[in-house]
Structure formats: C-alpha cells, structure tokens
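Lab notebook, bench 4. Still working through the backlog of constructs that have no structural model yet. Next entry is a single chain of 299 residues. Request: give me the structure tokens for it.
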Amino acid sequence: MFLKFSTALVGIFILFSQPAFALDEGEAAYNAGMRAYNRQEFQNAVFAFENSISYDPSLYKSYCMLAMSYILNDEPARGVKTYREAIQKFPTEWNAYILLAEYYETQQNHSEALSYYLQASDVLPPKEAKKYIKKINDLKEKQKEEWTVSESEKEKIISNILTPLDLSKWRVALVEKKETAVHVVYALKSENYKAGKWSQILDITCTYMPKQDKAHFDQINEWMATNYRRNNADMDTIVRTDISRLYEVNMHEKKTQIIGHIFPAPKGFCIAQFNYKKLSAKEKENWIDDIRKINVRNF
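Model written out:
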C-alpha cells in the first residue's frame, strides 16, 4: 500500500520538505516526523507529528503528514479524521483536500474522491487546478457507471431483508443509508448495543454494484479481508464459490467472533454477519445454518 499511495502524493510531499531556518519545538518535531516517515517508520512518524501539532497547532503541514502516516500505519479512520480536521481548521489550504481525495480513490470510493477534488478546485491555484480537470471528469464518468438507489428503493430494501430472527427478542439497533449501500444492525432487545454491552449482533449490508460478476465479488472479498487484518483479526473461509463466501473471523483485541456470508443479490452483493461474544458449539452451528438462509428481496 505504501508504494501505491505515496507515489501519488510525492508532489505534495515535496512541498512539505523545505528546510526551516528557525526551528522551534513544533518544527523540530515535524522534522523528526519527516525523518521517520522517509524511513517508513510510520508509528514513530505518527508520534512525532502528533507532538508537532501539540507544540504548534498552526502547523498545517503537520496535520497533512500526520494523516498520511496514520493511513500508512494501517489506521485509515484516524487518517481520514485528521484530514477532515485539517480542512476544517485551514479551509483555504488545498493539500488536505487532494490527499483525502487520492486516498478515497485508492479505496474505489469514487463519490467521496470526486467530492474532495471539487472542493479542492475552489481553493487550488490556477496552475494546480489544471492538473485535476481530467481527474474530475474521469471520476464523473465512473460515477455514471455506478448504480445508485433512490430513498424509496432503500426503504423497500430495508423492509424486505429477511432474517431468521425472532423480532420479539431482537430489534433494529442501527440503520445507515448510503449512496451505494444500506446497512442494518439487529441487536437483542435486552442489551445496549450502542454502549458496547451486547453478546450477539447481526449486521446486514446490501452493497450496490453495476454487475454481479466475479471481479466485483473479489473486490469486496479483498476489502473485507484487508479490513480485518488491520483490526488484528483472522478471517477463515468455511465455504467459498466464485461469487459467495461463508467465513469466520476471530477478533483478537475485542475477544469477539464473527460468522459472515457474502452472497450475490439482483443488483449487487449482500454481506450478512453475526457477531457474538460467547456461544456454544451447537449455537454456532445453528447460526451458520441461519445466516446462509438470509435473503434480500427487491434488491
């Protein structure tokens, strides 16, 4: 990931590498971070750039480099949060917009990438703006190819998810309706899901794709496997075909396990995951059977 991501950013990186003549503590910590970054010691770079910001919150370049270091240290959520913080604090500076857009491109999130490129175009110098005109047009074309869903269709999808749950015991704990996905979480009514006090949860995400082919399945499959690796988890396949996968995940740090199933739906894929903290072997076997029965209509 380092080579793919950092190559795209080399031009911006150079802008942050100019020597400073009067080094205060913030600049000194920034320079220490750059040395660690260049050695690909991203954890040390994170520590140094965090110190730089704590010494001098006005060092915009430290925010950008901190975000890059988080991402390259397999902490993408913190990296994205730091980019957004930089944008909020320094709205007329353009680097963070571009860096965040390029990160979203690496994640195949064309809509978010396009959004930040367009925001950058409002503050970019004319010479720099010309570089991104083609990029913006290309992303607009890619967006046209992506299937999106109306709000009424999303409501139909949510109401037509079939689960093996006894709804007198379970409740809908969370619903997220995004441009390319609908995500529903079911939790036991007696437990507090938002406070992290739960023993069993079922997540169902419907992900929209232009086609149901093996390439798209492999893309989702690799994204999930990578995401679990970053979260100190092992993902083992129980059953796999060309366009479906039944799997089990062991989350080491959170001491939880997941039984999941990726399977095709008429306009994309569905990911159904049962998360649990304590379960007998028989209960686990029953959930493996149940999660394979989950179906999605009108999708």
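Notes after review: The first strand starts at residue 161 and ends at 162. Residues 214-230 form the longest helix (17 residues). Flag for follow-up if needed.
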